[in-house]
Amino acid sequence: MKLLLFLLFVTSTTAFECDPHAKICETSLDIHYELAMMSEDGPVYAHNGKLFLYNVTDTANASPYNMDEIMTADGWEGSSGRLIVSANKSLPGPPIIVYEGQTVIINVHNNQLTEATSIHWHGVDMKDTPWMDGPPYITQCPIGPGQTFKYKFTANPPGTFWYHSHMGHQRLNGLFGAFIIRPKISNKIQLEEHIMQVFEWNHEYGSDADDLFEEAGGTYINRTKLLPSMQLGMSRYTPYRTHAGLINGRGRFWSGTSNNGAPLETFKVTKGKQYLFRVIGPGALYPWRVSVDQHNLTIVGADGYDTVPVVAESFVIAPGERFNFILNADQPIGTYMVRAETLDRRYTTKAEAILQYEGAMLSEPTSSKSKCTSSNKCIVVNCPFPFYPENENVNCTRLTELRTVLNIPTPLPVQGKFKEYFLNFAFPGYNGEEGPASVNGRQFKLPDVSALTQPDELPHQCTDQECGEEKLCQCMNSLTINSRDTIQMTFLNMGQGRVDDHPVHMHGHAFMVIKVGYGVFNKSTGALIEDNNDVDCRGNTKPGMSMCNSATWSNSSWLNGNVPGIVQQGAVLKDTVIVPSGGYVVVRFPATIPGIWFLHCHIDMHSNDGMAIVLNESFASIPKPPPGLPKCGSYLGNDVVSDVSDTNEPIEDFNDHVVKDEHSESDKGEYEQSLTLFIVQLFETM
């Protein structure tokens, strides 16, 4: 049964909402540099949840500054020099709300003085418009300083999505926002809604500096090296200096048990009503556990698709993911804390907001988290591990336990039209050392041209001579998948190079999550002991020392789609999924959307370092791009030059420049009937 919702928008940030009856919906995003804690009249500081100009010393008799005009971040007084890359001078950027089937036009003006940019529409279907997907040098040339790019695509499917820069670390410096597609059918139950975006913040410098610090040997505080953060299970995160967590761009800097009193985001509710919260994870690195004091959360959606309701105390959201939950405002009138905490056990970071009931004064909540006891265990959805330590009294609801309301059957393997791949997202290195970020030992290197529209100019590709079972290489790694195939991918996080969990995002497709395999954990402590033994990493035979570049199933009978224990009906649909340290995730999807699609870890520091691969899907069937689409390239001298001319000639076949994966085009009848049913159900109106 479908969950029918028509949702009214409530937020403190100025949003753009299209007329539901319009066929074309057009708006703009102006990209600027801004400063945190800075007003038109100068720097401001935080005191007891309010803001005051720096020259104010008597706050009791002074008027506070309008918070809506300030990007506060964590309110740190010294952060007035912290550069923010903003859309329309807000942090996050303005929510964009459109309706299913509308033609969306968004003019992105890059007003930065020194940086190029591009915008990815995360999770939005780009069928027939792959050049609008956004990643630079994959589907388009970057938007240079002073330039404008007009994104134009059809809004589909309805759900919770978001937009963000795909250039360097701009997303982590503030360039992102919510992108909501409402159903076009209006005869649905009306609920008010809130958008909630949870992310971490460094108030001293941007994440580009973290990359440089890591290359230079690490980050130091008072001459002491910052140790890597450690998740429950003892998987290690990439060092990233985090001072605070933010919800909708607001949070507090904590020092021990005290904080700086910066203002928090407020979500207003009325007793007796229900509200839908759309939660987005635009963060840099960490998964967050989200809860609301003294309120249960009913999970009703994941990555844009409605799910069968599941009641939980909290849920985990990683970078790139989205979850929808319904909150019943059924508690006594007052204020309650909305909480998000990282799973990190060494440097736990928290983000807070206020749930304010109508009739209650806006004050600091005195509420407390739900108590998890042996007789009343807390339910947590989407844990990146099989269980919490026994003494924490928490039960995990795994992603494979969620069901989509579409109730789609998992497509069966058909001989000749089923392909499976193993992709290991890790940091393998030589002699047991940590190496660069890679997929199957291949560190992704961006080209200097748009791969989609300039395939004849692509650089050197990966070869078997350079890359292999126990080898590392650097190249533009790509995988060719053919039209009408059912694709099964097993995302791994295993072998000598496994560290933290990886939120893996696939552009161009939603996929069915049909199985998750976790590593072997200690039930008492929750510590990871060893990799899951369902997978044979091959290569180095020493336990834990294989690079896991050419993995397969330990039991060969699992090949060809015969994996036991998969979800057969109603598997949750996702475009971003946490691949657990020491484990794997099996996904399936039909190859029905021709394009060049980026597949990468959504931790930007990992993706930028090379943890990515390009999916070359049915290149010959990609529609011709619009005339005038920019080209890019390098100038290499008078006799060698990349073609940067503006030509509308047909695109040469990308397949001429990648390692091909050929197989028969036969056996279509049975497959196409199954596939047609799958696609119709997949994109029917929710």
From TrEMBL:
Name the InterPro entries for this protein.
Cu-oxidase-like_N, Cu-oxidase_2nd, Cu-oxidase_C, Cu-oxidase_fam, Cu_oxidase_CS, Cu_oxidase_Cu_BS, Cupredoxin
**Domain annotation Plastocyanin-like: ranges:** 82-184, 239-360, 443-617
Q: Which GO terms describe its molecular function?
A: copper ion binding; oxidoreductase activity
Q: Does the keyword Nucleus apply?
A: no
Secretion signal, residue range per the UniProt entry: 1-15
**GO CC terms of this entry:** plasma membrane
- Which keywords appear in this protein's UniProt record, sorted alphabetically? Copper, Metal-binding, Oxidoreductase, Signal
Q: Which Pfam families match?
A: Cu-oxidase, Cu-oxidase_2, Cu-oxidase_3
Asked if the record carries the keyword Isomerase, the reply is: no
Task: Tell me where the transmembrane regions lie.
Answer: none
A biological process term (GO) from this entry: iron ion transport
Q: Which family does it belong to?
A: Belongs to the multicopper oxidase family.
Its name, as the record gives it, is Laccase
Q: Which organism is it from?
A: Mytilus edulis
